[in-house]
Amino acid sequence: MEVKLPPHEGPVLSVVDMHAGGEPLRVVWKGFPPLQGDTLLAKRRHAQESADHLRKVLMFEPRGHYDMYGALLVDSELREADVGVLFVHNAGYSTMCGHAVIALGRFAVDYGLVRAPASPETQVNIHCPCGLVKAFVEYSEGKTGAVRFHSVPAFAFATDVAVSVPGYGVVTVDISYGGAFYALVSAQTFGLDVSKSRTRDIVEAATAVTNAVKSQVKLHHPVSSDLAFLYGTILTDGKDEFTEEPTANVCVFADSQVDRSPTGSGVTARIALQYHKGLIQVNQKREFQSGVTGSIFTGKAVQETKCGNFPAVVVEVAGQAYYTGIASFVQETGDSLSNGFLLK
Ligand SMILES: O=C(O)[C@H]1NCC[C@@H]1O
Q: 3-state class of 205 per DSSP?
């Protein structure tokens, strides 16, 4: 039997599906209408204003689900970029996504977005909304493997910030930037364990913290106001002091969305915070474990730098992504659920 496109109206959205550390990534490589804007951040604004229905078609049920994640490949204005990307999730458009960079590094080499791949590693420059991220993709005998990346300058924004969290009282959090802003707090504060507690309890506490920080703390970023928002809250096991043992966390981002991976941008933010507190040194590699799947990314600070007036670090994160399939998504006339819906 020959598989042909079913009856449909409008664009055919072609995707390659992957995952890194259990977190899905739907790479949208064809069919998305061109986005206008001279810069990637302008294209991100255009997507928010004019193409948001297609984000929902791709992320929501019946084609996706509440915790789906995607990457829209777009042109970059940076000469050194091999690929530009916008990240999409259940509530909108993120500024950084480490698990996606780990997957996109492989994708870019496997699908010919970089010329002449080199062994043992091929560098892929990925322009993310937060800036240029350099991925280094293992490549040997025509096969891609693990990926490490150097993210944009990461910094501790504020430590020991007291916020009033309805249902939980006054909670002290740290706020750190790893391409996106996160509030970080030990799960113990809520009587929870990131590896053993029910996910819904972790989501409830983390979401309450996110809402409290959003309403009580003003964030700013030296490069662009487009980057100055709280993306989520990471509950940790509290093991911030360097040891050879992994430290576990769960990241709850966007609209109560749960990252299955250890969160690449969260690892970046955690290391920047640990470095700021003198708990980890440059080149001390640490393992970070997802509390929900047990998957591991590694991270280390590789260089001191600055972001505006903030003392910052360049962080290297490493992990492995895998392919899970390909698909062409369409919308059929008469389908009242075709634009997407979500179940919590
Ligand atoms: O790995 C990361 O950085 C991302 N995973 C989903 C939420 C974050 O964007």
A: helix
Which of 99, 181, 234 for a ligand 1 pocket mutation test, highest count of atoms within 8 Å of Cβ?
99
Q: What is the pLDDT of residues 84-112, one digit of tens each?
A: 999 999 999 999 999 999 999 999 999 99
Q: How far, in Å, is the centroid of ligand 1 from the Cα of 260?
A: 9
- CA atoms within 13 Å, Cβ hemisphere of 19: 15
Residue 130 designated active-site: no
| DSSP calls for 131-184 | EEEEEEEEEETTEEEEEEEE-S-BEEEEEEEEEEETTTEEEEEEEEESSSEEEE
267 to 34, 181, 228, 324: CA distances (angstroms)? 32, 12, 19, 24
Which one is catalytic: 97, 130, 251, 307?
97
The interface pTM score, or ipTM, of the predicted complex is: 0.99
Query: Which residue's CA is minimally distant from atom 4 of ligand 1?
Result: 97
Going by alpha carbons, the residue nearest to atom 9 of ligand 1 is 97
Give the pLDDT confidence of 197-255 residue by residue, as tens digits: 999 999 999 999 999 999 999 999 999 999 999 999 999 999 999 999 999 999 999 99
